[in-house]
Amino acid sequence: MVQKAKILLVDDRPENLLALEAILSALDQTLVRASSGEEALKALLTDDFAVILLDVQMPGMDGFETAAHIKRRERTRDIPIIFLTAINHGPHHTFRGYAAGAVDYISKPFDPWVLRAKVSVFVELYMKNCQLREQASLLRLQLEGNGKDAGGESKESAGLLAELSARLAAVEEQAEALTKQLNDESTDAAAVATAAHLERKLTGLRRALDALEPGTGSTSSVSSQN
User: Which residues form a coiled coil (predicted)?
Assistant: First the structure.
């Protein structure tokens, strides 16, 4: 049974949280509410999230400050953040959102279909990332347990490694197609940031997988990246 991804919804207005839940319920993932920046940071201490939808205008700790705390933590710095704002202050305000680490900046009222599509991209990436990391971890444990036969890596381990590499290649191909589509159809900063985030994630996964190849040394290097 595939575990659902968690999506963190941060807004001080209950009606806005309710609206977000209605929009994202079709994704069939776990939606977690936070009514303040402080509450969001507490949730991030214990749970892993695929993406964060963060309201900019909140009393006390606003969205920018909350994002700064998220990006300073090693555990949470790579979680994609989508800023939501009811006020459009112009390009400077938008740039501040991207500078704070957001992958997108959406003004309210937003198109529910567009928001759902953007969130689904990060949910899919998160799920693929988790699956590949689990497979890499299982393979590493098997390699450590079985050791090597007289001819080097066992046939079974080599087969698993080849299957894992093929699955990652499929994800890389999808990301490459997405990047090409973004370059052909849009020059929007949010789209470019999204593509860059995908590329960084996949580069890390490929590096971890390459560390499992025969002749690269100890498998402990893989565990440090998982």
Answer: 161-188
Residue 164, in any domain of the structure: no
CATH no. for residue 107?
3.40.50.2300
Residue 49 pLDDT = 95
Question: How many structural domains comprise the chain?
Answer: 1
201 lies in some domain:
no
- Closest by CA position to 12, among listed 105, 77, 90, 85: 85
**Predicted pLDDT of residue 26:** 94
Flag whether 99 is in a domain: yes
Q: Reduced to 3 states, what is the DSSP secondary structure of residue 31? A: strand
Residue of higher predicted confidence among 188 and 218: 188
Tokens of 100: 């704070």
- State how far the Cα of 189 lies from the Cα of 195, in Å rounded to an integer: 10
- DSSP code of residue 6: E
The C-alpha atoms of residue 57 and residue 60 are separated, in whole angstroms, by 9
What is the Cα 185 distance to its own chain's centre?
Answer: 23
User: Would the pLDDT of 38 be above 90?
Assistant: yes
Q: How far apart are CA 77 and CA 69, in angstroms?
A: 9
Which letter does DSSP use for residue 27 in this model? Answer: G
- In angstroms, rounded to a whole number, what is the distance separating the alpha carbons of residues 58 and 35? 9
Per-residue pLDDT, 162: 74
Report helix, strand or coil for 25.
helix
Domain that holds residue 24: 6-117
Residue 53 domain-assigned (yes or no): yes
What sign does the dihedral 201-205-206-211 (CA atoms) show? Answer: positive
Tokens 């560390």 locate to: 211
